[in-house]
Specification:
With 209 residues, this protein is mostly helical. The chain contains 8 helices and 2 strands, in the order αααααββααα. It has a two-stranded antiparallel sheet. The chain is globular, with a radius of gyration of 17 Å.
């Protein structure tokens, strides 16, 4: 229910931005980011209802692609919204392109190399689902995205402090929502506080976002 509500809420936000904020800087990339976020959320919306293992394998594959794409879109959104323009950097463009392209190339053949997903296993507590263990290349992708991701946060905060344009409250809420996703992902993998092992608990941060 929580993920379904998140999916519908994101759709309403996207419609509002398209209708009333389209002329604002960063609007296009905000919608792209919301769209990739919905790609991330949608496969998991029915994850605990459709318990077929094949569906859950595919859900993980699509969901993690949506997660990576959302981070990449977030970086470009921050660059366009703040008008900093750092997304025009050729090195950054190559970096983001390699991550998205690399995932699309490696995901269909993961069973042969296990570089994206090291292992899948059946879990029965607190629900019955297929858990995933991230592979070394996927970890590398995530860690490499921390650098442009943190810089994007820096540009947004700097913009918030220096800009006199309207929408400062909305930007604060956006930053808090985005940070909630990052925080839950860190807590998920650095501690044992969250109960669902092998499930992308960072998804729950999308509800705050």
């Amino acid at each position: 229910v929580l993920l379904a509500t998140t999916f519908l809420t994101q759709g309403l936000i996207a419609a509002w931005v398209y209708r009333y904020q389209w002329d604002q800087s960063g609007a296009k990339w905000f919608l792209i980011m919301v769209g990739t976020g919905m790609v991330w959320v949608l496969p998991y919306t029915f994850f605990f209802v459709v318990t077929n293992p094949t569906y859950q394998y595919v859900a993980h594959g699509i969901g993690f692609f949506g997660a990576l794409s959302t981070v990449c879109a977030f970086v470009v959104f921050a660059s366009t919204y703040t008008e900093a323009g750092f997304h025009h950097n050729r090195l950054l463009q190559a970096h983001l392109g390699v991550i998205i392209g690399g995932y699309l190339l490696l995901a269909p053949t993961n069973n042969m190399h296990h570089l994206l997903f090291a292992d899948f296993r059946a879990v029965s507590e607190p629900f019955s689902y297929i858990a995933v263990q991230r592979g070394v290349v996927f970890w590398g992708m995530l860690l490499s995205l921390q650098i442009p991701g943190l810089y994007a946060y820096y540009r947004l905060v700097t913009h918030l402090r220096s800009s006199q344009r309207h929408g400062g409250g909305q930007l604060i809420l956006f930053i808090v929502g985005a940070l909630s996703i990052n925080t839950l992902d860190y807590v998920d993998h650095l501690t044992t506080l969250l109960p669902m092992d092998g499930f992308p608990d960072a998804l729950l941060g999308m509800f705050v976002f």
